[in-house]
C-alpha cells in the first residue's frame, strides 16, 4: 500500500510526481495471512484520543508480522517487532490503535527519519489492494469517470512535525479551504485510483471541490516518554534515539462522512468493510523511501463493525442499570400497594351506647 510522503501538491493538484511510487507486488507471493477477521467492537465512552493505549487494555486486537510490501519474504521482516491493530466504535466514530515495537527515532522536520503509518480502505466495488485501487488509466487519463469503481480511501500520518500526544488531522483552517490536508502535523486524508493518481481529498484532475474536508484525527506516542503533562515543540526530540519501546498511533473518523465526491469510505453498523495498514521506519537510522514500507498483509483484511446490542459486557454498566431499575420498580410497587390499602381501609367510627345518649336528651 502506497501513500503520499509529504503534503506537497504540484500546480495541477496532483501529489508531486517525485514522491509517488508504483506498487508492483509480486503476484506469486502468498498472502501473509489467509483468514483474518478484524472486528470493531461497540464500546462507547472508553477511548480518549491522545496517543496513549491504557484505555484500550480491554479491547482485543490482532498481532501481525510486518513484511516488505513489495518483497514479502520472511527473512526481510521488520526486525523491531510486531504490529498490533485494534479497532472499536461508539456508534458515531470509528477508532483505531496501532502499536508497533521499535527503538525510538525522531528527527524534527524530517519525516523520512521518523516512523510513519497509513490506513487504506476500499471505496469502489472494484477497488483492489494491489496497485492502490487498480485503475489502469495513467496520470493524464485517470478521472472519476475513467476510474469509476476503483476508488480507495487513505489516511497517512508522518510525525516529523507532530508533537507527541497532540491532536492532528482535520482542523478549521484546512477544512475551511475544502481539502483533506493538515498543514500542522501531516495527518492527511487522501483518495486514489492507482499509485499514479493519488490526491488530497477535494483536489483532482478535473479541478478542486470546496466541499471536501479532512475527517481524520489522530495522535502518536512512545512508551519511553515519562512526561505526561504535555509536550510542546521546544521539547523536541522528546526522547533519546535508540531507546527500546513501542510506538502508539491512535486515530478516529466518523463512521459516515458528508463526502459526495466518492473520496471517503463509508462504514455501517453491522456491516463489513476491508482495510490495510502500512508502516515506514528508518531502519538502521537510514531515511526510508516511499516503496520501502512494511505491510500487515498482502491483501485486504476484513473489518466488521459490530452492533451495540451484542457487545454489552457481562456485569457492565448495562447490567447494573437494569438491576437498579428493577429495584426501584419493586419498591414503587410495594409503596403503591401500601398506599392503596390505607386509602381503601374503612375509617373507624366511635360507638356511643343508645341508652346513654337518650338520657342526655
Automatic annotation (TrEMBL):
Organism domain of life: Eukaryota
Protein's name according to its UniProt entry: Uncharacterized protein
Species the sequence originates in: Manihot esculenta
Amino acid at each position: 500500500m502506497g501513500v503520499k510522503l509529504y503534503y506537497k501538491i504540484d500546480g495541477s493538484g496532483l501529489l508531486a510526481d517525485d514522491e509517488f511510487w508504483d506498487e508492483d507486488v509480486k503476484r506469486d507471493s502468498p498472502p501473509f495471512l489467509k483468514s483474518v477477521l478484524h472486528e470493531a467492537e461497540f464500546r462507547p465512552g472508553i477511548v480518549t484520543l491522545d496517543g496513549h493505549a491504557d484505555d484500550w487494555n480491554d479491547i482485543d486486537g490482532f498481532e501481525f508480522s510486518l513484511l516488505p510490501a513489495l518483497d514479502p519474504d520472511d527473512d526481510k521482516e521488520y526486525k523491531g517487532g510486531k504490529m498490533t491493530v485494534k479497532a472499536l466504535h461508539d456508534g458515531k466514530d470509528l477508532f483505531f490503535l496501532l502499536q508497533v515495537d521499535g527503538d525510538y527515532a525522531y528527527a524534527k522536520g524530517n519525516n523520512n527519519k521518523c516512523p510513519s503509518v497509513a490506513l487504506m480502505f476500499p471505496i469502489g466495488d472494484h477497488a483492489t489492494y494491489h496497485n492502490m485501487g487498480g485503475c489502469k488509466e495513467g496520470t493524464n487519463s485517470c478521472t472519476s469517470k475513467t476510474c469509476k469503481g476503483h476508488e480507495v480511501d487513505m489516511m497517512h500520518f508522518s510525525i516529523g512535525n507532530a508533537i507527541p500526544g497532540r491532536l492532528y488531522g482535520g482542523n478549521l483552517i484546512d477544512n475551511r479551504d475544502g481539502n483533506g490536508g493538515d498543514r500542522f502535523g501531516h495527518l492527511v486524508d487522501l483518495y486514489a485510483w492507482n499509485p499514479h493518481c493519488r490526491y488530497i481529498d477535494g483536489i483532482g484532475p478535473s479541478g478542486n471541490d470546496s466541499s471536501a474536508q479532512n475527517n481524520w484525527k489522530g495522535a502518536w506516542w512512545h512508551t519511553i516518554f515519562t512526561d505526561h503533562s504535555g509536550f510542546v515543540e521546544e521539547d523536541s526530540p522528546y526522547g533519546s534515539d535508540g531507546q527500546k519501546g513501542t510506538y502508539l498511533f491512535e486515530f478516529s473518523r466518523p463512521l459516515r462522512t458528508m463526502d459526495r465526491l466518492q473520496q471517503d469510505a463509508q462504514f455501517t453498523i453491522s456491516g463489513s468493510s476491508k482495510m490495510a495498514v502500512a508502516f515506514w521506519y528508518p531502519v538502521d537510522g537510514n531515511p526510508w523511501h516511499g516503496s520501502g514500507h512494511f505491510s500487515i498483509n498482502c491483501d485486504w483484511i476484513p473489518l466488521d463493525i459490530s452492533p451495540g446490542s451484542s457487545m454489552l459486557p457481562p456485569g457492565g454498566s448495562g447490567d447494573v442499570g437494569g438491576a437498579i431499575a428493577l429495584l426501584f420498580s419493586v419498591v414503587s410497587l410495594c409503596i403503591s400497594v401500601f398506599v392503596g390499602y390505607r386509602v381503601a381501609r374503612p375509617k373507624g367510627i366511635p360507638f356511643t351506647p343508645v341508652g346513654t345518649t337518650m338520657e342526655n336528651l
